[in-house]
Design a protein that fits this description.
The structure is a homodimer. With about 375 residues, chain A is an alpha/beta fold. Chain A is built from 15 helices and 13 strands. The radius of gyration of chain A is 21 Å and the shape is globular.
Chain lengths: ~375, ~375
């Protein structure tokens, strides 16, 4: 058992500030039996839906070769397709080889001087900053349940003469959410900044009413040209291997990007995905599984909160930040879940800005969530006994 | 028929300096019957080989979802895999979302001051240059059959105090080839430059002996740290929709790139492709179809040279630059091939540095090549009668 732990520690060290992928784990440690990947933040019901369409459209009709063999359409052609479903002008849509390509492009090309990053957050937002950028950190506090104090944050940005900010909404790794009304106050107050980068990669899992209508702030690009909305599709659809994402931003930024690059950055399969995603029929089917998954996640979060001796922080995303029992180390806790129960969660021991021992647990299918909860219950109890 | 011509003209206008893809053509002009895509520069036998493996490994074993759902390995993990088949250190391999991503990264991050580009060439090499770069053009001449005069070229670079050069070997669109010995002279003479960018995307189709051993200059990175070799896999394998390419360069360049980006730029399917490509068994199978295709291309080039009234320029790639009968316009010639014969070739009317009317014709399967030759014969004859 200790050899597995040592191997995983090594894999973790070479993965930088990200977890080793499940493929890497399975490949390098074949004796490991992973039953639930609660590290991966996606809606598995949407993956089922997408794979079903792909099977019908490409495999059964023998059309897979077509999307692999030939050059995919250019970036702007895919923006035009996506425009239909997003109800945003195609000139404001930049399609990316995963959201991370959009993040990289924006940070490298448009962000200069100061960038305010919230901690804890997705590490690429400070790791990808270029040499011309000074990163300033605004800390979320455990005492405030890691929730953003909007006015204190706005004051921090103004007091420090910050000209670029980035926020993930809902935030990763805690799931804290800025509702639409507050969001509007924020961008109105920070109209003068060069870039307001908002990562909405988890927003399909948020809701503001009982009908769970899909929330988005994308339409605000019309009135706030400094807004940059980054959107990954890996979370909503569990298609991280596809590499699909996009950015909503001022048209002059997109013109600059396309002038000297990003010609064929989208694969044929991702092009197929975006076409499917833009069809009205698929949107209807997707909305059903999106709501089903939100319901499932609500039940999951409610159950996990009932586990004795752990603390679960407020989340409107498809995961929860969990503080484990005192005296227990997050790496050991993660290893016990993995080795004894086959449940892989994110050890947040390396997350900058998290003071204490935390893990991040993703909501999966209903059945998998039961496994996750049972595993966490058992490991927490053992932790208390030892 | 004229409406089709007008539609294609429009599609061409919005495609910039690249041809509209066959998917775009089929989508926008459904009445068009395309029998042979002689615009697309790939080995169709290798596509068959790859698709066969993919069918066995992913479709039949129901493993396609695995490569689409989960995060792919990070850039450096894929370099390590590729290293085995390339016999280059992993620290010198940068894996790209298509060769074009490597081109963009190198031009944006490492090229400053002057860049010498050969004309005619692949347009992205000057279009992607950043604002800090002055592009100087070295012209190939029809009178010299578009072949590179090595010593004149070296003199041009030195006389103009040029610090970066880019060459495609074999060159696109004419197929001119710099043999290994001359190549060595070139990089030795230009040791002092900041970057010698060599695009070897068509080098699997070149040969220097009767056994058609695979040529490459990748190993020279050990002794020439200013060398950057760019390699697309879209041509050898006809997998342009996959987006797969790589660059061989000094390790400090790759460290700089990975420090602030390119974390998950490879899709799960491309990762599968690179793993397959790196296996010894696949390499053996690939070498058979590579040689078969070279033989096929040699026959094709020999046949096409026999067509009266056209001029075919020397090529060691899988295509030929063809000058069409005098008085005939390259767009009309291309349209006659497409509309009357279903053969789609590249109209070079927009290629900067080509003085006259040219088309570029790709070699396809043996059967398709017969169709191409017959079509060109017929259209050329009609051109002479009219």
């Amino acid at each position: 058992m200790n050899t597995i732990k040592t191997k995983i520690k090594k894999l973790k060290e070479v993965s930088g500030s990200h977890s080793p992928s499940i493929a890497t784990l399975i490949n390098d440690i074949p004796q490991l039996e992973i039953k639930v990947d609660a590290c991966f933040l996606s809606n598995p019901y949407a993956t089922d839906l997408f794979m079903g369409h792909l099977e019908e459209d490409l495999i059964k009709k023998n059309r897979l070769r077509d999307v692999l063999e030939f050059y995919p359409p250019q970036n702007k052609d895919i923006s035009a397709i996506l425009s239909k479903s997003l109800q945003v002008n195609p000139e404001n849509i930049f399609v990316g080889n995963g959201a991370i390509e959009v993040i990289q492009a924006v940070l490298h090309r448009f962000v200069k001087k100061k960038l305010c990053v919230i901690l804890p957050t997705f590490s690429s937002y400070y790791e990808f900053a270029n040499d011309e950028t000074e990163v300033l950190y605004y800390h979320l506090h455990k005492e405030n349940k890691f929730e953003l104090d909007l006015f204190d944050y706005i004051k921090f940005v103004k007091d420090n003469a910050i000209n670029n900010i980035v926020l993930i909404n809902p935030n990763n790794p805690n799931g804290g959410y800025i509702p639409k009304e507050q969001f509007h106050t924020l961008i109105e107050e920070l109209k003068h900044l060069d870039n307001i980068i908002i990562d909405e990669s988890f927003i399909h899992f948020a809701y503001e009413d009982v009908d769970m209508f899909q929330v988005s702030n994308e339409e605000l690009i019309q009135n706030y040209p400094n807004l940059v909305i980054v959107k990954s599709m890996s979370k909503d659809f569990g298609v991280a291997g596809l590499r699909a994402g996009y950015g909503i931003m001022a048209s002059n930024k997109i013109e600059q990007l396309l002038k000297t690059g990003y010609l064929w950055n989208i694969s044929g399969l991702t092009d197929y995905f975006f076409r499917l995603y833009s069809s009205r029929e698929f949107q209807k089917q997707y909305d059903v599984v999106r709501k089903k998954y939100i319901m499932n996640t609500l039940m999951f979060l409610s159950e996990i909160r009932s586990v004795h001796s752990i603390t679960v922080y407020p989340s409107k995303a498809n995961f929860a930040l969990v503080e484990i029992p005192e005296g227990f180390n997050s790496f050991d806790f993660t290893m016990d879940l993995l080795i004894d129960h086959g449940v892989y969660v994110r050890d947040c021991g390396d997350k900058v800005g998290l003071d204490g021992d935390f893990i991040r647990v993703a909501s999966r299918t209903f059945e998998e969530n039961l496994e996750i909860i049972n595993a966490i219950k058992t490991v927490s109890q053992l932790a208390l006994i030892n």
